[in-house]
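Troubleshooting log. The previous run stalled partway through. Resubmitting the same two chains, unchanged.
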Amino acid sequence: MAKEVTSRSENYSQWYNDLALKADLAEQSAVRGCMVIKPYGYAIWEKMQSVLDSEFKKTGVQNAYFPLFIPKSFFSREAEHVAGFAKECAVVTHHRLMNDPDGNGVVVDPEARLEEELIVRPTSETIIWNTYKNWITSWRDLPILCNQWCNVVRWEMRTRLFLRTAEFLWQEGHTAHATAEEAEAKANEMVKVYADFARNVMALPVIVGHKSPNERFAGAIDTLTIEAMMQDGKALQAGTSHFLGQNFAKSFDVTFTNKEGKQEYVWATSWGVSTRLMGALIMAHGDDNGLVLPPKLAPIQVVMVPIFKTDDEHDAIIAKFGAIKAALEAKGVSVKIDDRDTLRPGFKFAEWELKGVPVRLAMGGRDLAAGTVEVARRDTLEKSTENTEGIDAYIVELLEKIQQNIYDKALAHREANVEKCDNWEEFKEKIQTGKFLLCHWDGTTETEQAIKDATKATIRCIPVDSYVCEEEGKCIFTGKPSHRRVVFAISY
RNA sequence: CGGGGUGUGGCGCAGUUGGCUAGCGCAUCUGGUUUGGGACCAGAGGGUCCUGUGUUCGAGUCACAGUACCCCGACCA
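Second attempt completed without errors. Output:
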């Protein structure tokens, strides 16, 4: 059992862990490497889902569902892809239990061995392409744009709440196209959806870019990523979108007849984000008082705490709160009146701060007499007293300000920790202190690997929309010529 | 899988060279007073000390084995 850590600087990992548990987002599961997502945490995930889902649909994507179990033989197709996951697969070998002949509980019935083992999906490319094969015969069947919301299992050696759990929830989109151009455009479109979501909804500044061949998704031709900086300066891959070329189509023999009547392999993409985004939210915005939720993801955007001495006072405050609540809800704001009579106001303040509620209203006898309410913002911890008249409009505006401020703060933190670096000795030192370093790289996997071995740092991405730095220079490690800088960092 | 750490009421911990009926804080329950930043007083309930084996007159404490969790690595679209 780990001791509780209350400060970010004390031990970042443990602070993160404690915060996720104490803010009521999740708890440790009895099952190795798994977690229980509690109602409050799940409510945030549902918000993420609903926003993303509607964005997907705007691009023509439809939801579908494919099986949890994948026959082992499906995995013998795409060699490179399988090699990427083989080491971390859960395998179903039997279908029945029986009473232990020795009298202790139950054992696996040896008679019930499956003829072919089933793999619990670590990702669904194989089963989906096996299915698409039957759906596609003509150019008229294309494109196919499917997404599924589901769980996947990866038997990781070391797990971390939200960031790398044995089982996690995610969304995986899989598309099939008639041309390479169309597929590449789709991969680009989806990474843009992720970047917009991260920036505008999660208040998370991200760098969009290409993965180096070394860091690419197993089986992909190109992987696009959104990379975020956490408060300790480490990088977190928050979402990816892959252009798969014809690799999967060839492995699963998915062809179509084109307009000229010729057989052709289809072109593919896949893209996904997971409950890891929850981890990003905690690590990017949290402080020592707890979670800081961007208003657009907060299940409760405004909490109201009454401070009263008598029943009459209580009733008068609750009535006022009720009126404000109705006005706010009419404007689409989610509100909770914390009317629990067993807890004191100070306790409630601390509790809602821990849970990251963006705005807190407190009203007591003094406010009642003056027609005011105390407004506290979670992001800055500032308090002010405002007239209740027109408070709904004030709060709607405040929520927007908070959303923007959380983003600006995270962006400022990143800007302060991104720098160019052209000296290998300097690189080795600086990279350990939580920086993103923009460096020249000779483009070879060997060099990237050597840098990783020496410093644990990897190329997070070759940026395309921020920190783009197309200039001539020399590789930081080998000194060979380079045409652009790439982002190096230590990652989660 | 390697290194380190920790398993004692719901949670966080203390427990001396092995010794008497296993303690403390928080939480819970009852009663009362309180309520503008995690309330106070009084009382009550709640524990196979992770599991097994061993050493011993005697084990929460010592030894060995197992197991679970946490941290650091290795690993990780």
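Takeaways: The domain at 302-413 of chain A is CATH 3.40.50.800 (Rossmann fold). Residues 391-415 of chain A form the longest helix (25 residues).
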